[in-house]
Amino acid sequence: CRHCEGSGDEDKPAVRLAPAPPSILPGSIVTPGLLAFILVNKFVDHLPFYRQEARFERLGIHISRQNMSNWAIAVAKKLAPLIKLFEDRIRGGPFIQMDETPVQVLREPERPATRKSYMWLARGGPPEAPVCIYHYAETRGPEYAQSLLEDYSGFVQADAYDVYARIAQAEPGITLVGCWAHARRKFHEAVQASK
After folding, report:
1. Helix, strand or coil, per DSSP, at residue 99
2. For residue 77, what is the enclosing H or E element?
3. How many CA atoms lie within 13 A of 17 on its CB side?
4. What is the DSSP string of 100-164?
5. What is the pTM of this model?
6. Which of 11, 90, 102, 109 is the most buried (most CB within 10 A)?
């Protein structure tokens, strides 16, 4: 009986809904656990959405690759302030390591599948707690490296790609240092050639 429970809230409705917990994608059916599972499968375990879709179907669960893709895009937009914070943290350290690696992206709008795209990596920040950022770019142009290294003061460790040298010349606080792996490779090649 709503009048004799003695809880002190008898004037409120007998059945009430608790507020929903905060969600990174309000209005979506995806839970934080499912979203984390899908994104880890995609970006850590390299499992494309179409394969995840097939795995879910085998379990009798229909989650389309279109939904997974839309969720990933929405999460990326929501995480933009966090990425900006990571970039600031990287620039706050005494050195930054940078590299760019070619990747092939299939079915990219208005680009042939044979055209190279690039994944840029930046690592830096406090030496005891470094931060890494991966940034996708359609080209190997200097735009991302320039935006990250603008007004930076410290060491930048990179390979011999001339973009880094040009940025170091334009930014007086940057000291460009080489990469040991690239230096050793030339000595190894010389030993192999000369026997």
Report:
1. strand
2. helix 65-78
3. 3
4. EEEEE-TT-TTS-TTSEEEEEEEEES-TTS-EEEEEEESS--SHHHHHHHTT--EEEE--S-HHH
5. 0.72
6. 90
